[in-house]
Each structure stands twice: as C-alpha cells, then as structure tokens.
Amino acid sequence: MTAEQAAAAARQHLSLAESLTALRPAEARAQWLEAARAAIAGLAEDPVHQECWRLLSIVFWHLGLMTSAAQAAARLEAPSLAPRSIIIAVLDRRQDQAFAIDGLLQDLAAFSGEVIVVFNDPTVFDALRHHQRIDKWAALSANAGVARAWNIGINLAQGAVIFILNDDLRVDPAVLMQLEAGFAALPDALALGVEGEVIDAADFSVKAKHRLGEIRQPIAVDKLSGYCFALHAQRYHDAGISFDPRLSPYFYEELDLMLKARQAGFNVYAVPVDARGLRHGIGISRQDRPLFRRDPAGHLSPRESSRLPARRRRSNRPGISQAQGPRGLRHSGKRRLAHPIRPPKG
User: Fold this and answer.
1) What is 82-280's CATH superfamily?
2) What is the tens place of the pLDDT at every residue in 186-209?
C-alpha cells in the first residue's frame, strides 16, 4: 500500500467514524483506530507524507476526547522519523581548548541520529549554523538557561531516544549505544545517565555518589549528572514532563526530573558504560545569575534571599556565595547555561 492509498483509506474510516460518533460511539472509536492504523501504515512507506500526518493528528484529537492524545499515540506506537536525537545546548565556542563543541560534532560524525543544537549566543550561531553535522538548530537572542534550552531541543526532537550532552564532551558513540541499550533492560526507566547521586531528602545532602567507571550494574538514583544522559522519548512524553526553568541556575533540574518520573511510575538510573569512551571538561558558569530583585547596593532582600537554596544563601554578595569563589560557581562535570539577564537594580 502506498502512502496515498493509505491516506485514502484513512479518510474513509474518518468519514465513517464521524457519522457514528453521536449514535454509536464504540463503533466510532473502532473506526478512529482503523484510520490511525491506515495513516501509520502510510507513514511507514513515506515518513514525511504530510496528508498522513494531518489525518493522524485528527485521529489523535478525537481519541483524546476519550482518553488523552498522548496515551493514544503511545498505544498505537506512532513512528518517529529518527532512531535517536542528540541535543546540545551551547553558549560559547572554545576553539583554543581541548573540549569544544567542534570536537563533539566530530565525534558524532558517524553516529546514526539527528543532532540538534540550541544556540544561546548569536555569535556562536553565526559561526556554526552551516556545520554539516548539525541537522536542526534553534538560535536564541539571549542566553535562556539550560532548562529552557533542553525543552526547546526536546520539542524539536523526533527520535525514540533523546540524548542530552554538554558541549564540552568528547564521546565514543559506543557509549551512547550502551546508554540506549539500558532502556530495553529497564522497562521502568525514563532516564539513564553515566553518573548519579542518592540524595538525603531531609537536607538535600549527597548520601552516595556513583561515578563514571565505578558502576557495575544499573542503580536507581535521585539525581543524574546532566552532562551526559538519555531520555526514553515515549515514556518522557507519556509522563507529560518538561524541565522547569525556575530551577535554573541552581542545578536542581535533574532532581526535579527524578521526582516527576517517579510520580508517573517511572524511575531514573545510573548505568555502567565504558568510561574510556567519555571525557568531559570542567565548566565554570561565570554568567550563572538568578533572576531576583536586588536593592541598589546589589543585595538580595530577605524575602528574595529566602527563595534561594541554603547553599546559595551563605553570602549575600551579588552573584557570589562562599561555595563559589570569585570566578563563579565551580562544579565538576557540569557546564551550565545560565540566565543572561542581569537582575534589575532597585
């Protein structure tokens, strides 16, 4: 059956379903399902057939009246257009360093999957927009922060597995395939990472840290390391999850992901991979600044200060805590894209 023939069959089922909806809803639902299967068969022949996608969208809208469109799509296993997607959020291009996005794009040259880059700086976008390994991009006029950048990339992704990588990473594609294989072995896994932490819920302290190269079997963790992890796209979307931008730049996005995953009946795991195939830089987010109101001297008000996590309340100096030091927040294995907008004075 060609895509055109499948679209014609889907239209016939849609027409019959519409005539039955009011009087015989059960039979109408059966026709909606047949229409969906016909459209999916057409997409199997031609993955970019616009009419089949349009008809499939109509079906999911009607099925969503009974359950939810997301659950209907998952149940019918609507096809993705790429086996996997890779999302890279980038703020600057460090050509004079060993770890730069150019090296990562080179590592991904032979990897089967779409590469999506979210540019948080117009200058870097102008330099890399025509790179042959970038399949899709989003260019932002200002640094929107890592949570927003990830959400934008995920909304552009069409892969069944979505990898989120730091731009200062060097990776053997075999490591990514090891991550992906974990989803088949862990049916409740929504996200998998190469490192993770177990958190004490009483004070958010780290009870156990499972580092790259030290993991021998999958371990359920509370927080994945955000420099290299993977999402199971269907489970992620079924759970209705997105990264909360209000948590930037305090590095709680991954902890929030775990909480949302467990609320939806899923879990997150750190899994063993070949550590020799993964290297990453140690980023310093000099522009990590909260979007809080300060007084003319640059100090947070008591009310605004109370909104900060305890580890950022240790000092009331503008943008600096005792844990940071004079050059900005230091953190191993993380390079965060932070809010670019300076807090207003007054």
Assistant:
1) Spore Coat Polysaccharide Biosynthesis Protein SpsA; Chain A (3.90.550.10)
2) 999 999 999 999 988 777 788 999
φ, ψ dihedrals at 73, nearest 5°: -65, -40
Lowest mean pLDDT among 60-64, 120-124, 307-311, 316-320: 316-320
Between the alpha carbon of residue 279 and those of residues 4, 150, 191, 193, the distances in Å are: 48, 21, 20, 14
pLDDT in tens, 103-145: 899 999 988 899 999 998 888 899 898 999 999 999 998 888 8
Burial class (CB in 10 A: 0-12, 13-18, 19+), 327: exposed
Helix segments in 158-206, DSSP class H? 173-185
Spell out the domain ranges in the chain.
Answer: 3-76, 82-280
Closest to 51 measured CA to CA, from 2, 7, 1, 5:
7
User: Which residues lie closer than 8 Å to 154 by C-beta, 6 or more apart?
Assistant: 87, 162, 231, 236, 242
Q: Is 307 exposed, middle or buried (0-12, 13-18, 19+ CB in 10 A)?
A: middle
Q: How does residue 80 score in pLDDT terms, banded at 50, 70 and 90?
A: low
pTM of the model: 0.64
